[in-house]
Amino acid sequence: MLYDWGMAMGIFAVDDMAGIDVAWRVKQEFKHLDKPGVRMPLVLDRLYEMGRLGQKTGRGWYVYDDNRKPSPDPEVEALIAKTAIEAGIERRAVSRKSRSHPPWFVGRAKGRLR
């Protein structure tokens, strides 16, 4: 879907390329800006704790082959599902039709973004 919108990669691939350890450190540096009651991403911390640092370790959000080609990883998919349950986050299916436009396009179509 992201490629249909002209993106070269998604945010998880960017995390894996830069390094989950880098994203984790940035998150730590700005932790003092967190607002109470605002839900924060949880899985990145767990990937970091597991030593899944992205392409440099061959595992991050994705698992990588010797040519650094990413593939979805069932272990991460299970971690996401488990983390959502523990946090009380209800997961839902999202249809391809509902994702036919990138989020910023929908805002423009409704006149909310300029």
Give a description of the structure.
The protein has 114 residues and is mainly alpha-helical. The protein is built from five helices and two strands; from the N terminus they run αααββαα. A two-stranded antiparallel ribbon has the order 1-2. Helix 1 (11-18) crosses helix 2 (20-29) and helix 2 (20-29) packs across helix 3 (43-49). The longest helix has 14 residues, at 74-87. It is globular.
Q: Which descriptor suits the 3D outline?
A: globular
How is the main sheet built?
A: 2 strands, antiparallel
Number of strands: 2
What structural class do helix, strand and pairing data support? mainly alpha
Point out poorly predicted stretches: 106-114
In short:
With 114 residues, the protein is mainly alpha-helical.
Furnish the topology, listing elements before pairings.
Elements: H1 11-18, H2 20-29, H3 43-49, E1 62-64, E2 70-72, H4 74-87, H5 103-109
Antiparallel strand pairs: 1-2
Helix pairs in contact: 1-2, 2-3
Keywords:
single chain, 114 residues, mainly alpha, 5% strand, disordered C terminus
